[in-house]
Specification:
By secondary structure, the chain is mostly helical. The protein has five helices and three strands; from the N terminus they run αβαββααα. Strands 1-3-2 form a three-stranded mixed beta sheet, sandwiched between helices.
Length: 130
């Protein structure tokens, strides 16, 4: 995985977010974690000790599990790098106030997420990673 490309893509996504990020966020940290860590954090903080792809904390930390991205990329028609980007964008949308706790909210968030991913990948210097 090319971390510098991911960083560039995420930086490019910030002005493309459909909603502004909260002013209190001094920084956003994207942390790539292994399956065991993600499962433990999911259980400790969300009461569900199962594997998941991304967890967002309101203070600006986004945990992403590349192993889950490897498992899911082909099913979604993405490269592993694109899937990781998608998870990080999902986290940014959570920070911007989107949530996916109900089916209608999840559909709105999915639509915003897919549009954001398309816009980021359309940038010539940040294009597709395959």
């Amino acid at each position: 995985m090319r971390v510098r490309l991911l960083q560039q893509q995420l930086e490019a996504s910030l002005p493309l977010l459909p909603r502004a990020l909260p002013a209190h966020l001094a920084a956003i940290d994207i942390v790539l974690v292994d399956r065991a860590t993600m499962t433990r954090v999911h259980g400790d903080f969300l009461g569900d000790a199962t594997e998941t792809d991304v967890i967002t904390f309101p203070y600006g930390e986004i945990l992403v599990c590349p192993a889950v991205a490897r498992d899911q990329a082909a099913a979604h028609g993405n490269t592993v790098e694109q899937e990781i980007l998608l998870y990080a964008l999902h986290g940014l949308l959570h920070l911007a106030g989107y949530d996916d706790t109900t089916p209608p909210k999840a559909r709105r968030m999915m639509k915003a997420q897919d549009l954001l991913l398309t816009k980021v990948l359309a940038k010539p210097h940040l294009g597709r990673t395959n």
